[in-house]
Amino acid sequence: MWILIVLALLPLAMVLWGLAGQVSRQVDSQYAGEVIAQFKREVTLTTGMRHDSVLTIRADGGHEFTVQVSPEVYDLFVVGDRIVKLPGARWPMKAE
């Protein structure tokens, strides 16, 4: 009986482990660059709509990537702003 309980909870544990690792990598990451685009998108889920706020960044090394941020952080930036993300910080901030 207990083996069935363990097998039933295993997928949930794996999902939670993966999410914890993703958040940890986001907090540990660091970059500096320039905001080159901003956009908001709506994603349809089975439970309703999700609204994403996304910044496109060109890092100082030339690499371009997108970062999903909170709406409050999104509103802090405009295209052309310098952006810095330090290790340990959840969100990027404007470079001074």
What this model shows, in words?
By secondary structure, the protein is an alpha+beta fold. The chain has a single domain, classed as OB fold (Dihydrolipoamide Acetyltransferase, E2P) (Beta Barrel), CATH 2.40.50. It contains 2 helices and 5 strands; from the N terminus they run αβββαββ. The protein has helices at 2-28, 71-74; strands at residues 31-45, 48-59, 64-69, 82-85, 93-94. Strands 3-2-1-4-5 form a 5-stranded antiparallel β-sheet. The N and C termini lie far apart (60 Å). The mean pLDDT is 85.
Q: Which oligomeric form is depicted?
A: single chain
What's the number of domains?
Answer: 1
Order of helices and strands: HEEEHEE
**Average pLDDT rating:** 85
User: How helical, in percent, are the residues?
Assistant: 25-40%
Question: Low-confidence stretches at least 5 residues in length (pLDDT < 50)?
Answer: none
Biggest sheet: strand arrangement? 3-2-1-4-5
Q: Main sheet?
A: 5 strands, antiparallel
Predict the CATH topology: OB fold (Dihydrolipoamide Acetyltransferase, E2P)
User: How much strand?
Assistant: 35-45%
The secondary structure category is alpha+beta
Overall shape: elongated
Total helices: the number is 2
Q: Terminal Cα separation, in Å?
A: 60 Å
- CATH top level? Mainly Beta
How many individual β-strands?
5
